């Protein structure tokens, strides 16, 4: 039984490591819509390097409430 659990862990671990960046990008607020989809596709096809680029280059979004378009004075 212990060998089966170890084998299952060894099989699942690479999948979890591969899917982790995709989940982090999908739930992140740093990009939206098509940008997020593009980053996810890059992670799928180019792997971890694009996730590292995402962390470095994805713009940090600011809340629209903080910077109104037409401020009243």
SSE series: HHH
How many structurally independent domains? 1
- How many helices? The count is 3
Question: Strand-residue fraction?
Answer: under 5%
Derived structural class: mainly alpha
| Gap between N and C termini | 71 Å
For the secondary structure, the number of strands is 0
Shape estimate: elongated
What does this protein look like?
With 73 residues, this protein is mainly α. The chain has one domain (2-57). The chain is 67% helix and 0% strand. The chain has helices spanning 2-26, 33-46, 48-57. Helix 2 (33-46) packs antiparallel against helix 3. The radius of gyration is 18 Å and the shape is elongated. The mean pLDDT is 80.
What labels would you give this structure?
single chain, mainly alpha, 3 helices
Task: Chart the SSEs and their pairings.
Layout: H1 2-26, H2 33-46, H3 48-57
Helix pairs in contact: 1-2, 2-3
Quickly describe the structure.
This protein is mainly α. 67% of the residues lie in helices and 0% in strands.
């Amino acid at each position: 039984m212990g060998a089966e659990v170890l084998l299952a862990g060894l099989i699942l671990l690479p999948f979890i490591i591969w899917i982790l960046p995709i989940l982090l990008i999908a739930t992140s607020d740093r990009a939206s819509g098509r940008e997020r989809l593009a980053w996810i596709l890059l992670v799928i096809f180019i792997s971890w390097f694009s996730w590292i680029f995402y962390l470095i280059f994805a713009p940090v979004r600011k809340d629209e409430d903080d910077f109104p378009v037409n401020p009243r004075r």
